């Protein structure tokens, strides 16, 4: 048989093409799978290392003994099923999940550590003589206030990935050799179906390469090409299973991002938002899905955050900053980190609540100091006056002593209210709960203050329907709340009428105290239940500003609600909703 015959001219090129195609396919797919696995594993380890770095930054910056970092390292290693190493800025291992850190070398010059300190993230793959296989190490710097306080490293073995790639290569090399060998033995009447089978296989390979992992080949023959078809289908099945596992891991990571309290935003090289978790959407007050595909500058509301993002991209360095937008606006601590291919990771930590608590604490100290300073200054002046000779004048001395007694009573009342508020807030104030009639808590409080209202020329009316259900309450405490609201209404109503009503609303009884007084400005209405809040001088001067705060905590201790509605110069209405006893 001549080599120039049609059989050889078809068979030999066909055999060579199939051999080269299978070799290329085996090598390409195995390398693609290996790169995909490694890239996904690096992204996973990077995300986990950054989460550990964010969580342990305050701890590593606090200077605690190094041995206390072994436990967090082991805890995170158990959660992530990986090896976790916590390294100090000088390279000394502070915490290790799998080895004895006291026997470990200084890690400062490890490639992943050096890269992390320079670029913000480091990765290296090297052979471990301890476990006798390659491991991937990903390290990120642990920063606090722009200062590197350590390095967090997460490591995983590559033995599984290398085994999968090796199996893929072995499968394809074996299939390629078998097919190339057997094609040479085929006769002419077998070449055509074989060619068609190879064409089908090539089409399926193109589909798999294009991303369609569901592509399968229907065997046309029962020879080696048919076996190759089966091998390809098995390979595609395994590849699809592997990709599915990776997608599940990605879904778990997405679930973690969705449950994070910190905001996460990722932009691509073009500055387009590609990922935003619900926390970031909530902080920026934008719809999560509506932000995807838009530019970063269009999504965020603060130009300073846009500037941090721009500087991070231009300088390829991590940028941090505190974003404040004035009173009653969110306060963020932003960490902007450059990623590969000019992508950027933006982390937003909401400090609004902390700032509010700091403001409340500062106001509380200021208000207590102010409330105590006035009576103490008065007492000091009176004592000095008595010492300078007023004590010799009995009438003047008695007058000064009466004033001193009044100031002491004022101090005693202030301290008493503070103690009551502290006991109620801490839950140490006993509540003697029992089913009681609404009239038993409302009428005594009103009647006790009626003479004071009549003295001020005010009319007080009480409307309590007879069919109101019983409420579950401590009588004395709720009487104190109603008395406080009625007293405030008398104090801030120059002329007019005060109405006290009650009505059932579902499983609650709502008690209201309405006046026709000076009202409360709209900007101050949200703050009236704060400690030491004062809404101006009333008929008998201002108190310490603790009454409404105490009333709120008493009502909340009963499982109820208290709120107010007001129009300035038209009066106010305070509501107390108490649960029924039934």
- Intertermini distance: 104 Å
CATH superfamily assignment of the largest domain? PAS domain
User: What's the number of extended β-strand segments?
Assistant: 17
Outline the biggest β-sheet: 5 strands, antiparallel
Instruction: Kindly report the CATH topology of the largest domain.
Output: Beta-Lactamase
Radius of gyration: 38 Å
Portion in beta strands: 15-25%
Strand order of the largest sheet: 2-1-5-4-3
Query: Mean of residue pLDDT?
Result: 77
**CATH class type of the largest domain:** Alpha Beta
Helix content: 40-55%
Number of domains: 4
Secondary structure tally, helices? 15
Description:
This protein has 582 residues and is of the alpha+beta class. It folds into four domains: 1-249, PAS domain (Beta-Lactamase, 2-Layer Sandwich); 260-350, Beta-Lactamase (2-Layer Sandwich), CATH 3.30.450.20; 354-426, Signal transduction histidine kinase, dimerisation/phosphotransfer (DHp) domain (Helix Hairpins), CATH 1.10.287.130; 434-579, 2-Layer Sandwich (Heat Shock Protein 90). 52% of the residues lie in helices and 19% in strands. The strands form four sheets. Strands 2-1-5-4-3 form a five-stranded antiparallel beta sheet. Helix 1 (6-61) packs parallel to helix 5 (188-209) and helix 13 (438-455) runs parallel beside helix 14. The protein is elongated. 30% of the residues are buried. Mean pLDDT is 77; it is low at 1-7 and 537-542.
């Amino acid at each position: 048989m001549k080599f120039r015959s049609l059989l050889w001219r078809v068979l030999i090129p066909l055999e060579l093409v199939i051999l080269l195609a299978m070799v290329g396919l085996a090598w390409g797919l195995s390398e693609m799978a290996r790169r995909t696995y490694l890239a996904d594993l690096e992204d996973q380890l990077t995300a986990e290392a950054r989460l550990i770095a964010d969580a342990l930054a305050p701890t590593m910056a606090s200077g605690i003994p190094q041995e206390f970092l072994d436990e967090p390292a082991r805890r995170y290693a158990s959660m992530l099923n990986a090896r976790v190493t916590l390294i100090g800025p000088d390279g000394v291992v502070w915490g290790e999940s799998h080895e004895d850190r006291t026997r470990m070398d200084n890690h400062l010059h490890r490639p992943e550590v050096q890269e992390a300190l320079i670029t913000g993230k480091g990765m290296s793959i090297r052979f471990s003589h301890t476990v006798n296989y390659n491991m991937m190490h990903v390290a990120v710097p642990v920063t606090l206030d722009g200062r590197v306080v350590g390095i967090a490293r997460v490591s995983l073995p590559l033995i599984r990935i290398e085994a999968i790639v090796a199996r893929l290569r072995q499968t394809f090399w074996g299939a390629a050799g078998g097919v190339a060998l057997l094609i040479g033995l085929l006769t002419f009447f077998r070449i055509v179906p074989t060619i068609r089978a190879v064409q089908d296989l090539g089409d399926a390979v193109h589909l798999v390469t294009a991303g369609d992992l569901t592509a399968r080949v229907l065997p046309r023959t029962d020879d080696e090409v048919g076996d190759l078809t089966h091998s390809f289908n098995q390979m595609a099945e395994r590849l699809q299973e592997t990709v599915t596992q990776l997608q599940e891991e990605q879904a778990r990571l997405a679930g973690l991002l969705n449950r994070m309290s910190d905001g996460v935003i990722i932009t691509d090289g073009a500055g387009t938002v590609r990922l935003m978790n619900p926390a970031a959407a909530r902080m920026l007050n934008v719809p999560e899905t509506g932000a995807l595909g838009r530019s970063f500058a269009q999504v965020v509301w603060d130009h300073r955050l846009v500037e941090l993002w721009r500087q991070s991209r231009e300088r390829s360095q991590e940028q941090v900053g505190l974003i404040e937008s004035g009173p009653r606006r969110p306060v963020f601590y932003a960490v902007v980190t450059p990623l590969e291919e000019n992508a950027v990771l933006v982390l937003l930590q909401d400090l609004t609540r902390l700032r509010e608590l700091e403001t409340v604490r500062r106001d509380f100290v200021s208000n207590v100091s102010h409330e105590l300073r006035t009576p103490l200054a008065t007492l000091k002046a009176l004592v000095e006056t008595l010492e300078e000779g007023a004590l010799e004048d009995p009438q003047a001395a008695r007058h000064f002593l009466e004033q001193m007694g009044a100031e002491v009573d004022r101090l005693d009342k202030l301290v008493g209210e503070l103690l009551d508020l502290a006991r109620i807030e801490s839950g140490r104030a006993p509540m003697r709960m029992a089913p009681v009639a609404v009239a038993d808590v409302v009428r005594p409080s009103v009647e006790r203050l009626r003479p004071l209202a009549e003295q001020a020329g005010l009319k007080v009316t009480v409307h309590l329907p007879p069919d109101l259900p019983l409420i579950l309450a401590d009588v004395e405490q709720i009487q104190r709340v109603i008395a406080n609201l009625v007293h405030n209404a008398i104090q801030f109503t120059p002329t007019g009428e005060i109405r006290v009503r009650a009505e059932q609303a579902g499983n609650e009884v709502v008690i209201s105290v309405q006046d026709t007084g000076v009202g409360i400005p709209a900007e101050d209405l949200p703050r009236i239940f704060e400690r030491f809040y004062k809404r101006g001088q009333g008929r008998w001067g201002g108190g310490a500003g603790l009454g409404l705060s105490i009333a709120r905590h008493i009502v909340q201790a009963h499982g109820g609600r208290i709120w107010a509605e007001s129009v300035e110069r038209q009066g106010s209405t305070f509501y107390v909703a108490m649960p029924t006893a039934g």
